[in-house]
Structure formats: C-alpha cells, structure tokens
TrEMBL record:
Protein name, UniProt field: Isoprenyl transferase
Cofactor(s), names only, from the UniProt record: Mg(2+)
Cross-referenced PANTHER family: DEHYDRODOLICHYL DIPHOSPHATE SYNTHASE 2 (PTHR10291:SF0), DEHYDRODOLICHYL DIPHOSPHATE SYNTHASE FAMILY MEMBER (PTHR10291)
One annotated GO molecular function: ditrans,polycis-polyprenyl diphosphate synthase [(2E,6E)-farnesyl diphosphate specific] activity
Length: 256
C-alpha cells in the first residue's frame, strides 16, 4: 500500500472525486448474508475512503449513497438503509468534526424520514466551520431530478422578470445546480464492475475521467483509491482539443 501511495503525484491530485458505491448487495449474497449486511459493511469502506481522501488532501469527495430510483427497492431495505444513515451520521459526526471534515448533502432532503433530516441538518451545522475535506453525501439524489429543479428555478427567475431567456448561459445553469459551490469532479469511480452512471451527477460529469473497478464496495479500501488516482494521473485530459494543444498537466481542470 505504501508503494502505491508513493506512486501518487501530490502536485496533480484531483480536487474532487465522486464515487458510485455499488455492490453491497452482491457482496452480502456472496457471504451468504442479507443485503442489509452488505450496506452495514459498506460503512467501513466509507470510513476508510473518507480518511484516505482527507490524508491525501483531496478537497471534495462526493459519495452516491442513495438514488431517487433506490426508493423503489423493497421496503425493508429502504427502511434499513435510512436507519443505517441515521446511525452512521450520529456515530461519525464527532470524528468528522475532529478531522476537520465538513459535511454537505445533495438530493431531495424532503423525501427522507424526518429524523434523518434532523440528524443531517445537525451534522452539517456541527461541521460547518471545518476547512479540510468537503464530504458531499448524495442522498435521494439523481441527475435528472437535479436538472429538473435547475430548469424550474431558472424558469421562476424568468417569470419574475429578474432574468431574460437570452441571458441564460452555462454560468447561470452552474449557479442553480446542487453543486453550485463545488468544482466538477475530475475523477468518477464506480465499484462492482457496472459500466454505467445510474443517474449520478449527469451535468457535472461532462469531462470527468471515469474509472470502473470490479471490486465490490464493502471491499474497496485506500489501496483501491490510490490505484484509481494513479490511473487518473496517467491520462491525458484533452477537453475536446488535440493532444498537441494540451500542455496543462493532468489534474488541472478549467472549473469555475
Ligand atoms: C449500492 O449497493 C448501495 C445502494 C445502492 C444503496 P447495492 O445495494 O446496489 O448492491 P448490488 O448492486 O445490489 O450488489
Ligand atoms: C447506483 O447504484 C446508486 C448508488 C450507488 C446509490 P444502483 O445499484 O442503484 O444502480 P443500478 O440499478 O445498478 O443502475
Ligand atoms: Mg447496485
């Protein structure tokens, strides 16, 4: 693991890493357990990866924890996941505070049970003065839900007369995203061998480098994170230009 760590160029780290934490159910099944056991084990990976990102000095880590579509899972799983969320936030908030990590949440908070909303609001409040890693939890989130809201709120401004349709540009769109205060992810990791986006950050991933690994989320650890970063650092990010035109080193993004 130290070996992998030494291969990382600390001057070219991604500022923002986004992860689709997938494979909890399959991992549990492999072990002969219920799906919820996989979700419980997945929390250990979250802890390990948050710690790994904080140690490296990554500025933003977005974790896709529950999608809009996940509400359609069997009720016992949804209820179990919500309980796990509340319990985890409660258990981890002091560690977040101590480690200078600031918690953010993106997604349709109103869909969450009231006690989960309260727990999250409190944890955000407790960590709001922290200046280290920004940990962004995507909960009841989907890219299409977000884009729909962006359109609604821009339409309201037009209706009010504070914005004219001609003035709508990418800067305005950016200002209405849930991630308006964060740069776009340079690196998006998905575990469990699935090669899809599953309605994650559809707008923000436009130029992200995508990294797919067969490792199931409950087994994903810092060494896997390091491998993903090393792979990222070996890529040439062209943003539509030719290879010759690109002189900037990997890792620098023309983000707002
Ligand atoms: C990811 O693991 C966690 C959530 C979507 C909440 P899954 O529960 O999707 O696990 P698999 O994909 O069924 O193995
Ligand atoms: C994506 O995983 C959502 C999260 C990890 C929270 P899913 O397991 O829900 O995605 P699909 O159904 O395989 O596309
Ligand atoms: Mg899955």
């Amino acid at each position: 693991m130290q070996d992998l760590l030494h291969q990382i160029d600390n001057t070219r780290l991604p500022r923002h890493i986004a992860i689709i934490m997938d494979g909890n159910g399959r991992w549990a099944k492999e072990q002969g357990h219920d799906r919820l056991y996989g979700h419980y084990k997945g929390v250990e990976s979250v802890r390990n990866i948050v710690e790994g990102c904080a140690e490296l000095g990554i500025e933003y880590l977005t974790l896709y924890a529950f999608s809009t579509e996940n509400w359609d899972r069997p009720e016992y799983e949804v209820v179990g996941l919500m309980e796990l969320l509340v319990k985890t936030i409660r258990n981890e908030v002091e560690t977040l505070k101590k480690n200078n990590i600031r918690l953010h949440v993106i997604g349709d908070m109103e869909m969450l049970p009231q006690h989960a909303q309260n727990e999250l609001t409190e944890a955000k409040e407790i960590t709001k003065g922290n200046t280290g890693l920004n940990l962004v939890m995507a909960l009841s989130y989907s890219g299409r839900w977000e884009i729909q809201n962006v359109i609604k709120s821009i339409a309201k401004e037009v209706e009010k007369g504070s914005l004219s349709p001609e003035d709508i540009d990418q800067e305005i769109v950016q200002k209405h995203l849930c991630t308006r205060n964060f740069p776009d992810p340079e690196l998006m990791i998905r575990t469990s061998g699935e090669y899809r986006i599953s309605n994650f950050l559809l707008y923000q991933l436009a130029y992200s480098e995508l990294y797919f690994t067969p490792v199931l989320w409950p087994e994903f650890r810092k060494n896997n994170l390091y491998e993903a970063i090393i792979d990222f650092q070996g890529r040439e990010r062209r943003f539509g230009k030719t290879s010759e035109q690109v002189t900037e080193p990997v890792g620098s993004t023309p983000n707002p």
